[in-house]
Design goal:
The complex is a heterodimer of chains A (307) and B (283).
Chain A (H helix, E strand, L loop, with lengths): L1 H28 L4 H6 L5 H10 L6 H13 L13 H36 L4 H15 L2 H15 L13 H30 L2 H8 L4 H38 L5 H11 L2 H29 L7
Helix pairs in contact in A: 1-12, 5-6, 5-8, 5-10, 6-8, 7-8, 7-10, 8-10, 9-10, 10-11, 10-12, 11-12
Chain B lengths: L7 H10 L2 H18 L1 H4 L31 H37 L1 H16 L2 H12 L3 H10 L2 H16 L2 H8 L4 H37 L11 H8 L8 H28 L5
């Protein structure tokens, strides 16, 4: 087990390395001279030259990359071009709201997704199955920003049950955004749970359990359910990436003070140190979550470890 | 079917037509394509024509879907928007498919270092959630519809490459490929004439499903202000404009959203139908 974990940990290093190189090169892929962007539109040639030296842009690419990585390991992500504050500080400020949003969305989408997927599987071919799956495929096709706008329209503006936008730390403000963000993931989990369940139901031991005369309810919830959940765990882990991406859209709809909206704002003002840091953070999170999911998977399913 | 030859297409059609919802979705897509092509004849108004005396009118006999803040006819804008969404969806997936299928073929056929390089790069592409990758690409290229097409195309590539690589590995060892090789066929001929057709089944299913996702992503980017710019009648951009009038004029939000939703839904259901029809396990 330990050996498998170690091997898996080592395997993410090259991925992170490539990601860091790409993110580093990001600045140089941007059209225009980074020094000119930093110095501002009115700067004269001398100022731009000085900024270029300050930023180390006059050195070779490998040298620049090493400096960049060195600063990264010391926790220095550079300064925002817009606010002139350290990027790390700006991100720390916006991280908690995004985390709350993602956690709330994940929680309810797992709950609903697994329940409806299992429910559909138990009523295979009946109207419950069809209804659950029609709702699921609709959830996958629903543009998140539209769902968000509709929820605001109905529950915030017309009914007045929830605040329209923003986040100041109250749970009521979390309801509509997390419903919006979790809808697609809930649908994906439901579909996946259904197919996983149907696979398990064809296994011999389910026949055996039924032949023993066990109640159908016991067969379903005790024998089938637990085994059907194993592949679902992986699926749920992978959906975190989707949540991170979706949070960009949902945070914009709900004027949520998190990382996603920060990213969109930074794109429009070309605040590239912020973009670099966010891209790095997002991919780092995604890679680490995948790693954790793989490990969890190995814990639940011993077959994996021996491969 | 006793007196008919059973071709693979007949088997496919037999399995596909049993799925009523996929059939309906297919017809919807066909109608949508026709509506997009003939938008200039179907649209009751010029999608760009403003009329401030008619601003923000709810649906009526003159304007079936109402008018927007500039008095433009929303139905006409949605019809023209179908052109944009379909074109963006199709072209971005097509670019992704061409690049992805080629890379997958090369990767599976030659193996070795090239295979490692292509597959590890696609791992890294997978490391970015799709829309974030697209935002990063738009940040580099600048906002605009054409750039959105490229941004969305890039993250279709890895999956196409994987599907085709897997099939290539299987087909490469088959008897008829070895026969072709023994007759002196060149690598290019074996790859593109003998192997590629066999890999396309899975790719076609993914192509259809991907169009839905791509339309969704592209309209999200336009909604975020990174894609189509006003006054272009793009569905996502129309929804972005509607945001300031929530509760004042609900029809602004409802109709463009329905257009995106139904289009994406149709492609997803149609794709699911194709997948079931291509699946040899289902009879």
């Amino acid at each position: 087990m330990l050996q498998y974990f170690l091997r898996r940990c080592i395997s993410i290093i090259p991925v992170l390395l490539v990601v860091s190189i790409l993110v580093f090169l990001f600045v140089h892929l941007l059209p225009g001279d980074p020094a000119r962007i930093v110095a501002g539109p009115d700067a004269d040639e001398a100022t731009i030259r000085q900024v270029r030296i300050e930023l180390g842009l006059d050195k070779s690419f490998p040298e620049q990359y090493l400096t960049y990585m060195g600063r990264l390991f010391r926790g220095d992500l550079g300064k925002s071009l817009r606010s002139k504050l350290p990027v790390a500080q700006e991100i720390a400020l916006r991280y908690p709201p995004t985390l709350y949003l993602a956690a709330a969305s994940m929680a309810w989408s797992i709950l609903f997704g697994v329940f409806f997927g299992a429910y559909a599987a138990m009523h295979r071919g009946k109207w419950q199955d069809y209804t659950a799956m029609v709702v699921a495929v609709s959830g996958i096709s629903m543009p998140q920003f539209w769902l968000g706008l509709l929820l605001i329209q109905l529950f915030a503006v017309h009914l007045g049950w929830f605040p329209v936008t923003g986040f100041t730390g109250k749970w009521k403000e979390l309801v509509l955004p997390s419903l919006t963000l979790g809808a697609t993931v809930a649908a994906i989990i439901a579909r996946f749970t259904l197919s996983s369940f149907l696979d398990v139901l064809q296994e011999e031991y389910i026949n055996t359990a039924r032949a023993k005369g066990l109640l159908e309810r016991v067969v379903m919830w005790k024998h089938a359910f637990r085994n059907a959940l194993i592949p679902v765990v992986t699926m749920v882990g992978l959906q975190f990436g989707f949540l991170l991406g979706g949070s960009v859209v949902v945070e914009t709809v709900f004027a949520w003070p998190g990382l996603g909206r920060y990213m969109i704002e930074s794109v429009s003002v070309r605040d590239y140190p912020v973009l670099q840091a966010l891209l790095l953070l997002y991919s780092f999170q995604f890679v680490v979550i995948n790693l954790l999911v793989d490990m969890l998977y190995a814990v639940i399913n011993p077959e994996i470890r021996y491969k | 079917m006793a007196d008919k030859t059973v071709t693979p297409f007949l088997i496919f059609w037999h399995k596909f037509k049993r799925q009523k919802s996929a059939l309906v979705a297919g017809i919807f897509i066909l109608l949508l394509v026709l509506a997009a092509i003939f938008a200039p004849f179907l649209a009751p108004y010029d999608p760009y024509a403003t009329d401030y005396s008619q601003a923000m009118m709810p649906p009526s006999k003159e304007h079936w879907a109402g008018t927007d803040v500039f008095g433009r006819d929303i139905l006409s804008r949605i019809l023209y928007g179908a052109r944009i969404s379909l074109a963006v969806g199709l072209s971005s997936v097509a670019i992704g498919a061409i690049v992805g299928v080629t890379l997958g073929l090369l990767s599976g056929f030659f193996g070795g270092f090239l295979d490692e390089l292509i597959m590890r790069t696609s791992d890294v592409l997978f490391a970015f959630p799709g829309i974030l990758l697209a935002i990063a690409v738009v940040a580099i290229l600048g906002p605009g519809l054409v750039n959105v097409v490229f941004a969305v195309a890039i993250f279709s590539i890895p999956t196409f490459a994987r599907i085709v690589r897997g099939n290539t590995l299987a087909i490469k060892e088959s008897l008829y490929v070895r026969a072709a090789r023994s007759m002196g066929a060149s690598n290019n001929r074996i790859m593109f004439v003998h192997i590629m057709p066999g890999t396309l089944g899975g790719a076609i299913v993914y192509f259809t499903l991907r169009i839905g996702t791509s339309i969704l992503t592209a309209s999200s980017l336009s909604f975020l202000g990174l894609g189509a710019q006003p006054p272009t009648p793009e569905w996502g951009a129309m929804l972005a404009e509607s945001r300031d009038y929530i509760g004042v004029a609900d029809h602004l939000t409802i109709f463009p959203g329905i257009a995106i939703f139904l289009t994406v839904l149709a492609f997803n259901i149609f794709g699911d139908g194709l997948r079931a029809a291509f699946d040899p396990k289902i009879r």
